[in-house]
Amino acid sequence: MSNTDKIWKEVKVDSPKASAIASSLPSSVSKVAQILLARGINTVEKAKEFIYGSVECLHNPFLFHDMPKAIERLKKALEHKELILVYGDRDVDGVTSVNIIVDTVRKLGGDIEWYVPAEEGYGLNKDVISKYASEKVKVLITVDCGISSNEEIEYAQTLRMDVILTDHHETPSECYPNAYAIINPKTANSNYPFKHIAGCVVALKLAQALTLSFSKEYDKNIVLYYAKKDGENFSGGCLSLKNGLEIKKFDFKSIYEVECDLRKAFKVYVNSSEVKDFLIKKDALLGNKVTVIDIATEDIDELKKAYIEKISNDDILRSFYEENLDLCALGIIADSMPLSDENRIIVREGLRIIKDNSHKRPGLGFLLDDVFALKGIENITTKLVSWSVTPVINSSGRMHKGKLSVELLMTKDVLKAKSLYSEIIKLNENRRYLQFENIKQFKHLLKEQCNPESDKVLIVKASNLDHGVTGIVASQMVKSYAKPVFLFITDGKEAIGAVRSVEGFDVVAALESVKDILIKYGGHSQAAGFTLEDSKSDEFIKRICEYTDKNLKKTSFLNTILIETELRISDITVDYYRQVEMMQPFGIGNLQPVFCIKRVTPTEISVFGSRGEHLKFKISQKGSRNVVAIFWGESKLAKFVQSETFLDIAFNIDLTERSDNKTAQLRVLDIKPSY
Question: CATH for 40-215+316-331?
Fold first, then answer.
């Protein structure tokens, strides 16, 4: 038996395959091949992209179904100096999204205003739309919201606003709003290959596509031409692209078969200098002044990759990334998006940008200075952003003043940034107090309205509390009880709620099951919000409980530790720690690797900390060297460790530094006696 209720589950991998991948990787990362394989990264190419992938691996924004339509409408607005409004959510994801769109449009000479909700709550509001319509707004861009705002978007259309809807939330049904264009990876007609992006990434893609639309290559036919020349004869293939998307691909046996496409081309990329020289001599090409570029590769995939790399390293696009990936990284982390696929690249690059110049945005710089001073550290990580940056930026929105955080990230004026930061810090203190009070109230009501031990789902109704921190309180309750939590607050007429979930239970689907009694709802599978008439509260609770009974499996409650690799004492080195760190950034979808070590002997057991709350001991294995193990907050297990001859330990590998001497150690997650 484990000394805790946690269940260990060891991942089994194909050892020969892991060895094959390891042998093809640089020595600096070869030791983590088994972990990569355990995470489904099962080829050398995938492994290299995971470790080294950069902006050229980001997906093409024109893969969104309505992107060309949205871009043409925005270009028209820019050309005719039409007023544009960006309407976003008031959390970090929404705040960063607003900043990305506003900054991009202004750089392109557009006339743009922005709005985030105050007292009126999440999502679009008719009164706000009406106000801006009276100010002659012609294009409304939603960011991080809108996919469930059918009525409000219909209303905007009646006021002669064209709505470009950008969102990433689950689509409650396939009855989408009547928007001019919808940019959302989760719509039924979306061709976008990665669905789990934050609202700020969707905003980034719109801004990127708009930026690219002002390049010379926008909407032009680019031909990737791979051929072999034997005298006057040619054989090979041709791939036509427009905005980086494949239009046509075919093989040919003669140069004449592709001359028609070459005449229409804007640029031609070829795989050899010999073919390049021949094509330049062709009258058809000279007449059209087509640029012919030699990329020098025989492989079509490599040819396409080289083209994408050239485009990605264009000065305009490179500058665009440097200006926006830092904001996007904050939004992704704050919205708990999985750190896989392009999210991983954006966060890694974004954190690099922040580290290189934290005061590029003075307001963010002030916040980081305080965090670094308080924590006594110098590096920015996903954990630091999640724990210390996100709550502060979110606090203004939770206290109904989200515009302050938009301005904090937007302003380049140091004095203004300092003033805004001071105001937000005060709001954050108020938010903490409000959070404490609401937790106290909801915990009291939880005991009255639920049975936390036996109920599958916890649904708590309160009255006359502030709505700003309901989501935070629900999240804390999920951590405490490992069950879905629905919290809502009523004023006697309407009830506004937040729901947070456990893995494997989709709360948007749960809300969909009671949509006939909801005024509005929306969100992700693990976090959502809803509004209903207070008179429907009892029916809501009854039906959600019935839905949960049918759809929530008992396995959702299990507290499982996933072990990815078993190590020995000889493996726990500074070099191995550094290889594991190459898998950063860590977070949801790319958790810090968990290891186990078996049949180790504990010695030198002690407790430490201001209240003696932490446990420290050393371990060895069959006469090996000693390695330090730290179990934070678990000093109560000291007697258990002392009583055991052999232990199995689940842990993260960590690094400690004393007097310029770096050593690897264990950050213990769980311990149990060896058998």
Answer: 3.90.1640.30
Rounded to 10 deg, the angle between the 126-134 and 150-158 helix axes is 20
Helices (H) and strands (E) in the chain, counts: 24, 23
> Kind of pairing, strands 485-490 and 494-500?
antiparallel
Please determine, for residue 444, whether its predicted confidence score (pLDDT) is greater than 50. Answer: yes
Task: Provide DSSP, 50-77.
Answer: HHH--GGGSPPGGGSTTHHHHHHHHHHH
Sign, CA torsion 97/98/101/104: negative
User: What separation in angstroms does the CA of 322 have from each of 343, 380, 572?
Assistant: 16, 17, 37
Residues in the chain, total = 675
Are 164 and 140 in contact by the 8 Å Cβ rule? The answer is: yes
Digit-coded pLDDT (tens) for 249-258: 888 887 777 7
Give pLDDT tens digits for 21-56: 888 888 888 889 989 998 889 999 899 999 998 998
Contact of 230 with 236, CB cutoff 8 Å: no
Residues facing residue 531 across a β-bridge? 496, 520
More confident residue, 515 or 292: 515
Using only C-alpha atoms, the chain has a radius of gyration, in whole angstroms, of: 28
Please state the φ and ψ torsions of residue 318, each to the nearest 5 degrees.
-60, -45
CATH of region 450-557: 3.10.310.30
Instruction: Transcribe 584-603 into DSSP letters.
Output: PSPBTTBPPP-EEEEEEEEE
**pLDDT, tens digit, for every residue of 199-222?**
999 999 999 999 999 988 899 988
51: alpha, beta or left, given left = phi > 0 and alpha = psi -120 to 50? alpha
Crossing angle for the helix pair 403-410 and 362-375, nearest 10 degrees?
A: 100
Q: Which carries the bigger pLDDT value, residue 121 or residue 128?
A: 128
Q: Hey, where are the domains in the chain?
A: 7-12+564-673, 40-215+316-331, 221-312, 332-430, 450-557
Structure tokens at 46: 């995938």
Inter-residue contact 571 to 619 (CB < 8 Å): no
Who's near 238: CB < 8 A, 6+ residues apart? 223, 224, 225, 226, 248, 249, 250, 251, 252, 258, 261
Tell me how far apart the alpha carbons of residues 89 and 166 are, in angstroms, rounded to a whole number: 11
Report angle CA 604, 607, 609 to the nearest 5 degrees. 140
What is the CATH T-level fold of the domain 332-430, as seen in this structure?
A: inorganic pyrophosphatase (n-terminal core) (3.90.1640)
How many whole angstroms separate alpha carbon 199 and alpha carbon 205?
10
Give the list of residues 6+ apart from residue 473 with CB closer than 8 angstroms, or none.
435, 438, 439, 442, 487, 498
Would you state the pLDDT for residue 248?
86
401: amino acid identity, one letter: K
Give the tens place of pLDDT for each residue, 173-192: 668 899 999 999 999 888 89
